[in-house]
Amino acid sequence: MLDVCLPGTGGMIPLENRWLTCCWLEYQGKAILIDCGEGTQIALKESGCKLSHLNTLLITHYHADHIAGLPGLLLTIGNSGKTSPLTLVGPKGLEQVVTALTVISPALPYPVYLCEIKEEKAGELTMDGVSIAYLPLNHWVPCFGYRITVNRKPIFNPQKAARLGVPVPLYKTLHAGQPVQLEDGRIVQPDMVLDGERAPIRVCYCTDTQPVEGMTDFARGADLLISEGMYGDNEMEEKAKEKGHMLFSDSARIAKECGAKRLWLTHFSPALTKPDAFSETAQRIFAPTVVAHDGIRITLSGD
Amino acid sequence: MLDVCLPGTGGMIPLENRWLTCCWLEYQGKAILIDCGEGTQIALKESGCKLSHLNTLLITHYHADHIAGLPGLLLTIGNSGKTSPLTLVGPKGLEQVVTALTVISPALPYPVYLCEIKEEKAGELTMDGVSIAYLPLNHWVPCFGYRITVNRKPIFNPQKAARLGVPVPLYKTLHAGQPVQLEDGRIVQPDMVLDGERAPIRVCYCTDTQPVEGMTDFARGADLLISEGMYGDNEMEEKAKEKGHMLFSDSARIAKECGAKRLWLTHFSPALTKPDAFSETAQRIFAPTVVAHDGIRITLSGD
User: Fold this and answer.
1) With contacts defined as CB-CB under 8 Å, which chain B residues touch A72?
2) Could you tell me where the DSSP H helices lie in B39-134?
3) A with B: how many residue pairs have Cβ under 8 Å apart?
4) CA of A39, closest CA in chain B: separation in Å?
5) CATH topology for B2-152+199-291?
6) What is the pLDDT of residues A59-101, one digit of tens each?
7) What is the pTM of this model?
8) Which of A109, A134, A178, A288 is most buried by a 10 A CB count?
9) Which CATH superfamily is domain A2-152+198-300 in?
10) What are the helix (H) ranges across B107-211?
11) Does the annotation count A65 as an active-site position?
């Protein structure tokens, strides 16, 4: 079960009624945050996200609306009782930006590790058993989209285990992929009690960008594609290109092509006061589109 | 007429229902802002403060709750249409801190001037015809209190001017302290039409600090003393000393001793969810104490 929440859905400037876009993903009590603009720490509180659970912070790029909240967030996490490490992941420049911004938050009660993605090419890393893939996007500074994959254990068949005489306390070991030895000396292998693989849970997050080749493959079959909808009106196409952003319809086309189960649009222009007014523009292309709002939340089971 | 507003009244951490402490002072369409923690740009909007009017930003010290909003504020000011210079004033370290934080807001459409107060001693400077005095406070980093003084023109007596035959369009020149020559050749000096001096308007702003010698003189006769009330309960005295802060009663005593006309308490601890509950603690010492709230506003005429 992967909980996903967008505590904020705005772009460029934090507004009185809309926090800047960020994404909280929590799996087995460990959380990943994508981006932290000014005010994100308040948005997280409003959405009930527990800062002490945060283990990984992914930064898409270093425009202020995606990073300016870092020093305040780090300090407030320190007040949340966290002592375990926090890992920051971001494009080239991570060390320089973090060093600069934390001039006003120099002493923290937990270690901060930096994982700088030095090259602008796709890759993958694993944090807390969750796979994090990244894809270079097309903005006017280095910028990555992220794909979070939770690989689920195969289905455990308790009937098969019972027929083999496996004591219940050993089920967990078998389910985790380890053989067990019974009291009578027999060895039971995991494949004797498992009923095949389950599809992983995939969430793909892409802001800020123009449509890029590779994004469709990157987001292929995602349970949830979160993608930017800076502008709702198709007539804003030229401005979107000029500013390095996407229309609702751009994201909807990608969601359709990649076979995502659902699409959340986010990162709305401050001028887009009623993003809902353009829902149909996207839904005509990809029906399961949701124009997101601050605090939108879903629990993905992958089934 | 000096407009004064506290768009935020919190300390340490921005909360869902309380912005971080900052102060907006506007005189003749030119504004001074004191401090800019995370979210201050939103607080300013909520309080109706026009960012394009901002000419001077005074920073008390470089703890995150007083400065973390700087890069976002600078960018949003850039979007407000401002092209005239913005001057930043702050204790030693200003250049280092501003250079570091603006790594994410490198290009601005207006010049930013830095005025670093290198020595920890009192002084005074003048910006846009307003006097800005500063006093070293007692926090655990270099920190200044600020006193804003608006020197008002003497009272103009239109009856005297009329008796001398001064045409109305020349009143303004005389009121500004310049002599005028009439058509018949006579010179009229300002003191011939002015009715004496008027007391200046003074606002004194002091956070974060323990009570310091000199603060009473610094705030002498202020129309408004804005002073920190990190803790309401007198039983927090030890904690206040340890953390370098003041109680409501500390600020009330200073307001009484300095003969201020009124006191606004601000910079409340996040744990102080209902600062109003401790109003009487201060008002017993200094009756015209107001426990401030976000958006509190006053227009000071000095009369």
Assistant:
1) 13-14, 37-38, 64-65, 68
2) 40-46, 64-67, 70-79, 94-101
3) 93
4) 6
5) Metallo-beta-lactamase; Chain A (3.60.15)
6) 999 999 999 999 999 999 999 889 999 999 999 999 999 999 9
7) 0.92
8) A134
9) Ribonuclease Z/Hydroxyacylglutathione hydrolase-like (3.60.15.10)
10) 158-163, 171-175
11) yes
